[in-house]
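Chain A, query sequence.
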Amino acid sequence: MLAMAVPVIIAAGSPLLAWRDPVYIVAGFAGVIGMALILLQPLLAADLLPTPSAATGRRWHRIFGTILLISVIIHIAGLWITSPPDVIDVLLVRSPTPFAVWGLLAMYAVFAAALLALFRRRLPLRLWRWGHTLAVSLVVIGTVLHAVQIDGTMGQLSKWMLAALVLIAFGMAILRRRVWAIGLRRR
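Chain A, predicted structure.
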């Protein structure tokens, strides 16, 4: 939890916020909180955090996944309110900033992961696991590359530490869940 809180605390004290509008600040914090939640998600999905049961961990995974989706929407909406031309450039993939492309990829991947989660019970397990894993892989990679390229409020050290922890947690979850093994065993 400390790894999630430190970047948020550093962002709250950043001098870069002094001249920003409240909407921009909220949008930025939604991004920081979203990245912190991305650290939590694979740990819950792979039952790597102490919870009363695996079912409780999955329930928290769904709750925090919903909060993550809301944070992404707030992040984008806030940026849209403060600078529509910049958001249009990103959506049309013509932004001059490389971090924008990674943010766009991560945004669409979050939407895809949420859609797959919504229809989980209607999809074959193998298809759902592969699809969700692919989507969240793009979320993790896109978010990390988006965040580390921005000179923003999180601070370089805390941002890189959070990015490293996100990648490690995701790797541990992939190894633990063994998605590639689904359907490979003979009956």
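The radius of gyration is 17 Å. The chain has one domain: 2-181.
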